[in-house]
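During the second year of the project, the team shifted from modelling isolated chains to modelling whole assemblies. The rationale, set out in the original proposal, was that interfaces cannot be judged from single-chain predictions alone. As a representative example for this report, we include one of the complexes processed in the last quarter. Its constituent sequences, exactly as entered into the pipeline, are reproduced here:
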Amino acid sequence: MLPALLLTVVVIAFPLGYTLYQSFTNWVITSPNPPKFIGLTNYLELLRDQRALQSLLRTVLITIFSVSFQMVLGVAMAMVMNRHFFGRGLFRTLALFPVVATPVAISLIFVTMMNPQTGVLNHLLSGVGVGPLQWIYSEKSVLPSLILVDTWQWTPFVMLIALAGLATLPNEPYEAAKIDGATPWQTFWAITLPMLMPSLFVALLFRAIDTLKLFDTIYAMTQGGPGTASETINLYLYTLSFNYFRMGYASSMVIALLVLVLGITLLLIRARRFAEERA
Amino acid sequence: MTVTRPSPMAQVSPAPGAHKRNHLLREHLLPLLVSSFFIIPIVFVFYWMISMSFQTQVEISANPPTFWSAHPTTEWYSQLMRRMPFLHYAWNSLVVGVSATGIGLAIGLPAAYAIARWRLGGLGTLFLLTRITPAISFLIPWYIIAKRLDLGDSLLIITLLHITITLPLIIWIMIGFFEALPGDLEQAATVDGCTPWQSFLLVAVPLVKPGIVAAAILAFIQSWNNFLFAAVLGGPGSQTLPVTVYGMLSFEQANWGPLAAAATLVCLPVIIGTIFFQRQLVEGLTAGALKG
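Output from the structure prediction step:
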């Protein structure tokens, strides 16, 4: 067992340790000069980097909206898919497809659908008198368009977790609610949602983390454009590393990002424990 | 002798009939309609992808767009096969996915077992960390190693990178399954003279087979779908399918036919797999969610 354990730690910890080390150097991979140890210089530059700050804001914005939509829609979807209606099995299978489909492929299909001139989305919208929209081709609508694609792809994941949570709920509270004459709406808010919270918390955590890391979809659809209107932290990291080859500086950004996200995650977990203990 | 028989036709039947109709409406039709609101957008995107892949160039660029091809063609599919070693790229994806999953299982299963049995909870934070870490930070060190060792354009380095995806995922899922095993079984095995490895291989592994299947399927899908690693480190010989699909748009701006055909082909195996292994897939996706 021990060798396997060690190997795992190496596979995971080695890149992290290496990144941490690089973050203190001025390494540019194309430069003929060997990397020099420059202490905290990268981190100081990071604090003044407007492009990094803006891409961080965009990342947070996308995450907040995407995850909110996914949580609300995913729970609604789970509530209806939990009923034993005719065709449910087929619908549950179909709902899995976005979760397993290759993000790059789906994203590019969305690009064709979002074409302002010949795309099907504008065609459908014109049917109800809306549009034409510019979708990913305008600075104003590019972030909402990306949020739409992410929500399309990952709402079923929230549904799955919520469904799994629903399956474990006990029957008694519902019987009691029925006797008390509670409406379905009241039952949902007073019984289902509170009991579902632990599962939903995990779904929220997973989705938030994965959306913060979202790369493939944005890179395939906009490459951060138009201009830098959809450049998130991960897109900026990619540009820094593989277009400018500033590995040292990019590494400092990875570390700063990790500390930030890990901090927020641990805070969330702590808050959840606190809420559970109080309840 | 006039027995007033309640006529079954007149009295009993209308009530249950209406009741039955109401029941059908409330229990089946209503949920079906409401869930269609979610399912139609999901299905539409896949329908659009597949339908576009069989349309002629004129239909694809038509305005208003074509919903149903009048002259379906397989031109784009044969073009894919003719103009590039598409099957070779598919083979690359398969080799990388299978090896990364296999190696991930070989290392991940004993590691997960050790973590679950010896209660190494602190390592849980490490796995949380891998989930949070942007993929690029795994890429940078391996990129440098690949350049130094001249390993560019090889399936080996791409497989190694994909292990950084499959391994944490497998461990994450398997810890829960190993923890759920009753400890007595292995104790009995130890009493009977089994070494820890023997009780792992002969007692624990056979019992968590469903979990292993779930973890393997999920790991393979993650590897199959991954774009970034092969995009940066792959070359003409080691290109994987997501990179191929991405290449479709950049070299022929308005030519969506080959793009739709390639997108359909890359999604097809995972979609078919989903249909056959739905239960295991859902188990894998929701593992960890219920155990916290």
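Residues 66-226 of chain A form a domain with the MetI-like fold fold (CATH 1.10.3720.10). The first helix of chain A runs from residue 2 to 22.
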